[in-house]
Amino acid sequence: MSNCWNQTRAATSLIRRLKRSIINPAAVARPRCFTTAEGHRPSLVHKRSLDILHDPWFNKGTAFSMTERDRLDLRGLLPPNIMSPEQQIERFMVDLKRLEVQARDGPSDPNALAKWRILNRLHDRNETMYYKVLIANIEEYAPIVYTPTVGLVCQNYSGLFRRPRGMYFSAEDRGEMMSMVYNWPADQVDMIVVTDGSRILGLGDLGVQGIGIAIGKLDLYVAAAGINPQRVLPVMIDVGTNNEKLLKDPLYLGLQQHRLDGDEYIAVIDEFMEAVFTRWPNVIVQFEDFQSKWAFKLLQRYRNTYRMFNDDVQGTAGVAIAGLLGAVRAQGRPMIDFPKQKIVVAGAGSAGIGVLNAARKTMARMLGNNETAFDSAKSQFWVVDANGLITEERENIDPVALPFARKIKEAGRQGLREGASLVEVVEQVKPDVLLGLSAVGGLFSKEVLEALKGSTSTRPAIFAMSNPTKNAECTPEEAFSIVGDNIIFASGSPFRDVNLGDGHVGHCNQGNNMYLFPGIGLGTLLSGSRIISDGMLQAAAERCVSFVFCF
Ligand SMILES: NC(=O)c1ccc[n+]([C@@H]2O[C@H](COP(=O)([O-])OP(=O)(O)OC[C@H]3O[C@@H](n4cnc5c(N)ncnc54)[C@H](O)[C@@H]3O)[C@@H](O)[C@H]2O)c1
Ligand SMILES: O=C(O)C[C@H](O)C(=O)O
Ligand SMILES: [Mg+2]
Questions:
Q1: In this structure, which residue's CA is closest to atom 3 in ligand 2?
Q2: Residue 424 falls within a domain, yes or no?
Q3: Measured in angstroms, how far is the CA atom of residue 290 from the centroid of ligand 3?
Q4: Which residues form the Malic enzyme N-terminal domain (predicted)?
Q5: Nearest alpha carbon to residue 508 among 474, 540, 538
Q6: Per residue in 525-551, is it b (16+ CB within 10 Å) or e — as a string?
Q7: Which of 20, 312, 404, 433 is least crowded, fewest Cβ atoms below 10 Å from its Cβ?
Q8: DSSP string computed for 83-139
Q9: Are residues 290 and 361 in the same domain?
Q10: Is residue 67 assigned to a domain?
């Protein structure tokens, strides 16, 4: 819910300066013969000649000085004119900016994939320059290296794959992971983002191609939290895929078998966790885009033993809390009014339930933090999934959704029943907030938005948080035109602000866990905490609120 990259950058650059030796890529592991930007901290490089030019961690391309060229056996391997890093970037940006002549970037940027390719090639040959470009233009290129373009990249990954990035552990590697983990060249890894590709954004099971999401998340760890790019590791755990199209595609790069399940599945993830924490005991592992069925189970299984968290469950929750509190403020009410908000949530998966749990805890704290407070907080939520309103009458209810099932009598008094449709629920409840984490594009239809006009709030909030762009529950244009100019709007993927006429702007805030997960990782790294506790996540969410401007 924030357009606050500037503040985030200012904060992280401050931390970076304070903790330079830990997290500044320029200051760590630089080869002895290189001159760093600050001109200090030499470090050893054993490579010579073309091996250096082909190593993205050390390659400086045309920016190698004459002395460096002599020392590293590079003389004659590069054009003679030595470029400054600034000139190199200028030359690169000419190439990239050419794509913006015909089309400005944005949610439906037709050149997004072409831009991703150009940036990815730079990432492959010169990491330092890649991150300089990304950090300097983060607002512009986050939607390219991250959501929404990363979704398209994952969908097409088998075709786009050129050079490997990160590690792949597959079901075929059972029994081997403890030794495989030593194939990674870095002796220190601070951050791993791991996925099993089972629920990539709102795009479903993309199997091995889901590694793109781990790469995109780690790009933000480097660009927004200043983590050393040599100490990040994207990981794909390939236990197969249930995506029939991929299973039939001869060019698909992953295991062509159905997903492992049950104990077999857990055994693979257990082996992976043991292997990475044996080699890098201080690493932090972010679980990303695991289908809900496993997201909660794995979080409970590991969270008290390993330094890990689940971004979709816990990162999203923190950002949503920041947005929900920001909305209360934008309604002109004191934050303490948060427990009075009526919230309809569409989607009861890893993200929806994560948000509900955190919102309930936050409300309960505001109400006195006792059993009664905890109980009365849950009465503020109405949860609708693919089968409609969730009540205690629901058969085979998912245990994680059970605490939010409405009592059937209570629902009846409101004119609602088990399985009531989203329109009916919005009509009857008249919520202050309508929040979507359903992965269903267009779910907030004209009828649903019309119903929200009856909200008891002067400024109803609509959070269409599903990704990527086409999966958003509604667009800001639809929300402003149907519900009215006064709404508070946020989306998971970036949209442009809406021109409301007469010089008025309908602001589209962004509600994406990218505003939190880099801070969760950085905070854990710097604090040295052995686990990532609820208290830490709550503190992170509260910090995030202070950066939020909900228009
Ligand atoms: N903005 C963010 O930071 C952020 C963070 C995490 C997830 N997400 C997005 O949230 C979406 C859901 O993620 P998830 O992990 O919870 O997925 P999931 O598949 O586990 O859950 C989806 C939920 O939506 C429900 N649903 C399906 N059709 C529905 C309908 N017609 N009406 C109401 N509910 C319906 C399903 O029953 C299920 O409960 C994805 O698009 C993902 O990209 C966004
Ligand atoms: O990846 C994102 O953009 C947010 C979130 O983690 C998601 O799964 O949609
Ligand atoms: Mg995710």
A1: 147
A2: yes
A3: 8
A4: 123-303
A5: 474
A6: beeeeeebeeebbbebbeebbebbebe
A7: 20
A8: PPHHHHHHHHHHHHHGGGTT---STT-TTHHHHHHHHHHHHHH-HHHHHHHHHHTHH
A9: no
A10: no
For residue 102, is pLDDT > 70?
no
Range of the domain at 270: 161-306
User: What pLDDT, on a 0 to 100 scale, did the predictor assign at position 529?
Assistant: 97
Active site residue 146: yes
Query: Is 217 a residue of the active site?
Result: yes
Q: Report whether 418 contacts 394 (CB < 8 A).
A: yes
Distance CA 133, CA 121 (A): 13
183 is in an annotated binding site: no
Residue 343 · residue 432 · CB < 8 Å: yes
pLDDT tens digits, 298-337: 999 999 999 999 999 999 999 999 999 999 999 999 999 9
Asked if 452 and 473 touch (Cβ cutoff 8 Å), the reply is: no
Cα of 467 from ligand 3 centre, angstroms: 9
Assess whether 252 and 300 both reside in one domain: yes
pLDDT digits over 167-190, tens only? 999 999 999 999 999 999 999 999
Ligand 1 contact via 443 beta carbon (within 6 Å): yes
Same domain, 412 and 273: no
pLDDT at 478 over 90: yes
Three-state SS at 285: strand
Q: Per-residue pLDDT for 10 more than 60?
A: no
pLDDT tens-digit profile of 494-527?
999 999 999 999 999 999 999 999 999 999 999 9
Distance of CA 26 to the CA centre of its chain: 25
Cα distance between residue 355 and residue 292, in whole Å? 13
Please give the structure tokens belonging to residue 91.
Answer: 């030359």
Q: Which of 6-10, 60-64, 247-251, 523-527 has the least mean pLDDT?
A: 6-10
Residues 270 and 238 both lie in one domain: yes
Query: How far apart, in whole angstroms, are the C-alpha atoms of residue 303 and residue 310?
Result: 9
Nearest CA to ligand 1 atom 43: 201
Residue pLDDT, tens place only, 12-31: 443 343 333 232 333 333 33
Does residue 202 have a pLDDT over 50? yes
CATH code of the domain containing 288: 3.40.50.10380
Residue where one domain finishes, among candidates 279, 306, 333? 306
Q: What is the pTM of this model?
A: 0.92
Q: Which ligand has the nearest atom to the CA of 472?
A: 1
Cβ atoms of 225 and 519 within 8 Å: the answer is: yes
Ligand 1, atom 6: closest residue by C-alpha? 312
Query: In angstroms, what is the span from residue 66 Cα to ligand 2's centroid?
Result: 45
Q: Where are the alpha helices (DSSP H) in 203-315?
A: 211-225, 244-248, 262-279, 292-302
**Has residue 18 been placed in a domain?**
no
